[in-house]
Amino acid sequence: MRSDAALALAITALVLFLLANFSPLMAIDVGGRGQSVRLGSGVAGLADHDLAPLAVFVLAISILAPLGRVVALGYVLFRLRGAGRPHHLAPVLRFAERMRPWAMLDVFLIGALIALTKLHDLAAINIGVGLWALGLLVVALAAFDMTADRRALWDQVSPPHRLSKQPSPGSWLGCRECGLVQPLASHCTRCRARLHQRKPQSVHRCAALVVTGLVLYLPANLYPVLTVISFGRGTTATIIGGVSELMTGSDWPLAVIVFGASVAVPLLKLVGLGSLLLSTRLRWRRRLADRTRLYRLIELVSRWSSVDIFVTALLTALVTLGNLATVEPGLGILAFGAVVFVTMLATESFDPRLIWDAAGANHV
Asked: Cβ(144)–Cβ(73) under 8 Å?
C-alpha cells in the first residue's frame, strides 16, 4: 500500500470536505429574491418541517459518517508514519470501516445534480464553490479507496500473530471487522471486535426488517414526497410523479437513475433478501454461489436508494421564498427514509454463510 499517497488523499479529502461544508453548493433567484444552500442546509430544512428523524438520518449519512471516516483514516495513516503502533489504532480503523457503507457523499452529489435539474424551469440557478468541492471530494475519496489496501493497512496497524500450533479446522473464526482468521475466541485478537461463528439471530432480525420495509414501501410511494408552491398554487409529487416529470424533455437519463435508485432498488432489495431468507429456511441446495453473489449485489447497491432523500432535503432548504416559490417535504419522504434505513440494516443483519450452512456445504 502506498501510505504517503493515501495520507495525501485523506488530507485532500478533509480540506475539500470543509470547503464543501462552508461554501454555498448552489443558489437560486426567483423574481429578485435569492436563496443559497450548503451541505448541511438540508438537515435544518427537514428539522424545520417537523421531520427530525429524517433530518438526523441525513446528518449522519451526509456529514457525520463521511467526516468520521476521513478523520479516522487520516489519523491512522499519520500515526503509522511513526515508529510505534499504539493499541488504539485498531479500534479507530474499525470505526472507519464501520462508517464506510453509511458515508454517502457520492449519492449526495447525484442528488444535488437531480435537484438542479428539477429547478431549471422554476428559477435562475447559480452553481457555487461548494458543489465543485463536493465533486472533487467524491473523486478524492474514490482515489483513496483505490490506493489504500484494506488488508495491508490492517497488517500495518497490527500484524497477525504467528500460531505456535495449528488449530483444528472447526475452531477457526474469521473477524468480520478486520478480516483476521484466528482460533476460536470471544473477541478478535487484533481489533477487539466480538467474534461469532454466525451473526446472532441473523434470520429473525433480517426477516423482521424486511417485513417492516415492505409495510413502509407502500406509503413511501403513495404519499407525496414534496409539495411545490409557486405563486400561491401548490403541486404535490410522489416518487413516481417525479420520475414522470423528469422523463419529459431531455432529462430522461436522470429519470432512469431516480427510478432505479428510488423505486426499483428498494423493491429489489426487499424481494432479494426475502428470497435469500426463504431459500435458507427451505434449505435449498442449488445455485449457492449465485445466491451469494445476489447478496453481494444487494449490499453494493443498498446505499443508492437514498438519492431521493437528498433531493428532497436540498429542495426543502433551497426553495423557501414564501408564496413566490416554496418546497415542502411530505409524509412520503419520511416513510421512504425509513425504508432506506431498515433495508440497510436488513442487509447488514443477514449472514450469507447461512446459505451454505443450510445446504450442508460448510462441513466444518
From this structure: yes
C-alpha to C-alpha distance for 61 and 331, rounded to whole angstroms? 20
Residues 38-66: tens digit of each pLDDT: 888 889 889 988 889 999 999 999 999 99
Say which residues have a Cβ less than 8 Å from residue 12's Cβ, sequence separation at least 6: 140
How far is the C-alpha of 359 from the C-alpha of 209, rounded, in Å? Answer: 24
Tell me how far apart the alpha carbons of residues 265 and 271 are, in angstroms, rounded to a whole number.
10
Contact between 39 and 21 under an 8 Å Cβ cutoff? The reply is: yes
Phi and psi dihedrals of 124, rounded to 5? -75, 135
Q: Using alpha carbons, select from 3, 11, 10, 14 the residue that is nearest to residue 149.
A: 3
What is the reported pTM? 0.88
3-state secondary structure of 323: coil
* Distance separating the N- and C-terminal Cα atoms of the chain: 34
Residue type, 295: Y
pLDDT tens for 154-165 read 888 877 766 556
Helix (H) or strand (E) run with residue 124 in it: strand 124-127
How many CB atoms lie under 10 A from the CB of residue 181?
9
**Residue located via cell numbers 427530525:** 52
- The three-class DSSP label of residue 53 is helix
Q: How far is CA 132 from CA 9, 24, 126, 157, in A?
A: 17, 10, 12, 34
